[in-house]
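pinned: reference chain
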Amino acid sequence: MKSYILASLLAAVGTVSAVPMPAPAPPGIPSTANAKTQLAALTVKTITDPGGYSRDLFPHWNTVSGACNTRETVLKRDGTNVVVSSTCAATSGTWFSPYDGATWTAASDVDIDHMVPLKNAWISGANTWTTAKRTQFANDLNTPQLWAVTDNVNQAKSDQSPDSWKPPLTSFYCTYAKSWVAVKYAYALAISSAEKSALTSMLNTC
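pinned: its structure tokens
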């Protein structure tokens, strides 16, 4: 009986010291089968930069409710034990970055990444959208477009597509590709042949 209790205690200690569980994922991540179907439906073409891009063309971090804007809403959604001030700024909490597996306890170390970067959207078709649609895209909480991640990892990604940049954790390739495809499918954005090839390879890791 004592040995059983000891084993149970050791198991409990092991659980506490284990790698933190990932935070809840954004909504709308499709199954692998659906992601492959969506990928097949996307328009593949040579992607050229039409020029004229500016982040200001995608109004972002708009007010969601009360004093909370989109960034603050995602920080609360994806963090653990998040405490906010009267102005909705996160004053404490824990954030797990699925791109690289890092855990942070300061909101200043966390960026909100656009899964499909704003400039990539611009050159993939968003240059023809209305400002209202670009605003929706930049603040979309209904698709897997917004992710709380390590700030310098987000900066390393910049506006690159999966054929040029992939998250440091290969174990996240599957979810990353499914999310990228879901966003492009939701907004009928085009992809390049190299982008499709990279996404296909990533989906094959699922």
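why pinned: The CA atoms of residues 66 and 88 lie 9 Å apart. The two ends are 42 Å apart (CA to CA).
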